[in-house]
Amino acid sequence: MADQPDGIVLGRHRDLEGRRWHPWLRRALLGLVGVVLALALVDVFGQGASTKRAEAGAATLSVTAPDAVRGGLLFQVRVTTEVHTELKDATLVLNQAWLNGLTLNTIEPSPRNEASRDGRVAFELGHLPAGSKHVLYLEYQVNPTTVGSRTLRLELQDRETPVTTLDRTLRIFP
Amino acid sequence: MDIVVRAAIAFWFIYFLTRIVGRRELSAVGPFDLIMLIVLGDLVQQGVTQSDYSVTGLVLAAGTIAILQVGVSYANFRFKWLRPVLEGEPIVLVDDGRVLERNLARERLTLAELEEQARLSQIGSLDDVRWAVLEAGGQISFIPKQ
Question: Do residues A76 and A118 share a domain?
């Protein structure tokens, strides 16, 4: 009878020759998974919201939204317009990145009118008196096949005259 | 196309996890492990098919996993040098009644667990064991002394 079972090499399978570093590799790879989880905890993969502001003489525009989202997630964008001097016909103009690969479920309150301006989407808010504040809520869902990074550009106009522009980046993880 | 990519990523990620968590976790299927398996399956499904309820989606996802499984199996069969990576290697736990503590610790196995496995194999004492081997699949095989 052979001393050890068939297929067992004592040096390698009992004395662990050439295998002593294996647990360290396993721990390192597990640590790598842990790093990914730690990054998730500090919001690298979404979807904690941040606020960006753009100041102008006539108004201050601020957008509160997540910087990163993942496929299929619901998220909210809050656009606040603080008016310093009267805007006779305030309009928010969104570039295509606000809608490509994203589903805009609802806008509250509904704009007075919606229009296309050279492929961009315009939401007409109407007359905003000086000192007033307008908050627009946009409720989104990420289409599951959408991935990548994009620049969301939002322009506040008064009768097609630009008042201020705000850019922010949205990263979409699969 | 994306569903094939997602299924492939899910397959390789789960494969990667099963290789790094160690055999101790894989060999034990208690009530908690059973529930975790179901939860894991549900999580994987959501990531792979997301909101796709179609039969086409099912065929693509299941087909991708089946092809990859056969591919891994063939690579394991065809290339001997790949086996330790894809499947792992056995490790001797008992040699002629002597428990190899270092090897047990390496797999995070306790003496009590080893004794329990021995009892399940109708072996009352590890002194009666010629060889105990933790196999690549996570089971422990016992060869009694003659």
Answer: yes
User: In sequence order, which ranges of chain A are alpha helices (DSSP H)?
Assistant: 22-41
Of the pLDDT bands very low, low, confident and very high (cuts 50, 70, 90), residue B26 is low
Residue A11 carries which DSSP code? I
A28 contact residues in B (CB cutoff 8 A) = none
Dihedral sign for Cα atoms in the order B7, B9, B15, B17? negative
Output the 3-class SS for A111-145. CCEEEEECCEEEEEEEEECCCCEEEEEEEEEECCC
pLDDT at site B87: 87
Whether the complex's predicted ipTM is more than 0.85 is answered with no
Class of domain B91-144: alpha beta
A13: contact with B, CB 8 A cutoff: yes
Count of domains observed in chain A:
2
Q: Which domain holds residue A149?
A: 49-173
Provide the whole-model pTM: 0.79
**Which residues of A are less than 8 Å from B43 in CB distance?**
none
Asked whether B52 and B64 are in contact (CB, 8 A), the reply is no
The answer to whether the CB of A145 falls within 8 A of the CB of A107 is: no
**Length of chain B, please?**
146
The verdict on A75 and A154 lying in the same domain is yes
Q: Tell me: do A65 and A27 sit in the same domain.
A: no
Residues 36-75 of B with CB under 8 A from A: 50-52
